[in-house]
């Protein structure tokens, strides 16, 4: 396997595998796009908070008017 080279250093023979996980892939990896998800503009929680704030503003306006 190893023999002396011209400069006195051992030579190692290079071995390249012909098959394997890296070399046997048939296609290039590519991006996979999924369907877009429809998201609400406002969440239900945000809508509830806005409704509560509106009700409190109306209640405060009524109590100040009395």
TrEMBL record:
Q: Which InterPro entries match?
A: BBIP10
**UniProt name for this protein:** Cilia BBSome complex subunit 10
Question: The organism sits in which domain of life?
Answer: Eukaryota
Record PANTHER family: BBSOME-INTERACTING PROTEIN 1
UniProt GO cellular component terms: BBSome
The biological process GO terms on file are: cilium assembly; receptor localization to non-motile cilium
Species for this entry: Chloropicon roscoffensis
């Amino acid at each position: 396997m190893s023999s002396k080279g011209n400069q006195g250093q051992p030579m190692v023979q290079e071995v390249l595998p012909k098959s394997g996980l890296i070399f046997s892939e048939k296609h290039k990896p590519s991006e996979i796009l999924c369907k877009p998800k429809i998201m609400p503009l406002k969440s239900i929680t945000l809508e509830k908070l806005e409704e509560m704030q509106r009700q409190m503003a109306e209640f405060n306006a009524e109590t100040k008017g009395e």
